[in-house]
Amino acid sequence: MKILVLNSGSSSIKYALFKFPEQTLLLSGLLEQIGEPLGQHSYHVSSTLAEQHGKQQLNIPNHQYGLNCIRDILLNSGCLADFNELFCIGHRIVHGGELFTQPTLLTAEVIQQITAMIPLAPLHNPANLLGIEVAMQLATHTPQVAVFDTAFHQTLPDYAYRYPVPENLYSELKLRRYGFHGTSHRYLAQQAALLLNKPLPEINLITLHLGNGASACAIEKGVSIDTSMGLTPLEGLMMGTRSGDIDPMIYDYLHQTKGWSLAEISQLLNKNSGLKGICGSNDMRTVAERAATGDYQAQLARKMFAYRIKKYIGAYYAALGKVDAIVFSGGIGEHDAQLRIDCCKNLEILGIKIDSEKNAQPATSDGKIHQAETAVAVLVIPTQEELAIAIAAVTVAQQIHLANK
To answer: Which of 34, 119, 146, 202 is most buried, taking the most CB atoms under 10 A from its CB?
Structure first.
């Protein structure tokens, strides 16, 4: 059976087609700069039918057009004969609030509930809903499943997810920490348990999803007990374009001194801060290259990035009491060896000791980069969010198919 995964963002759509039960990736791709004068569509066909790569620049005026492009490449590649061939479609949904704690079959009622959560994720949920709407038009009889970024963090205790603000702001507006990247953190926990040969309910981890968006998660006995992102993805670690943790009175200060509106300040902190704000680039590869040449602003950006991660490692170590492993993942976490060293520097007293030689080598199947005699494992695990979404969607769809028999 074949499963399509769609991750529809505000200006991009990431997609993947899998064959189950083998969990084989047949085709994957990314559409970027949707709605801009010149967008880009890159894809990779990895089936035995035809190994090929493709990249083209084209105008992608809206999500409808973008999903039509995906439809065409799926059908023309030979990976899919017809959309009715799909067993199910899995959709990444950023915000599920307190309502959704598990992957959920998409119905009119569920779509209405996701729509009601738009105020909690105004940049993400509308784009996710667009992807659902168009996919339902293309595959009218195929079960479609919502997999929520926030679901994994619904196990946070109240003292971790509540903000110290008046009670009515929680009871009326559900103002609290939700956390994101949950699908990735759940997958990393599962893979770490396998690599360490320990049952998931017996493992304590600090997982670090480090990409243009970045978050940390404290996992106790296999479940999330704290995470760095909050009501929105802005809180927490320094990121590509997001500031992460700042004094909340900065909003008032900038309004009073610069006359900026809330929308302008939000744009600043979400789109023009982080690495980009410090050194002008949100691509860590470029920042690393510049830092190596002595560029002070690039060096500062990397030091700030690593320092804030280190502080979260220390805080979550204290929260957990015992840590079996630190897990690095995401584009930066997987590929930036020096950053991993910087994040763990001077943490030897906690039993965190990286083996420099292992760390410098390409990722291995066991993912281990720690020294042999160390209390805490340090792992590099490539995250596979699309596969995790596909697995979750299949589980729900199988229940639907069995119920309809």
So the answer is: 146
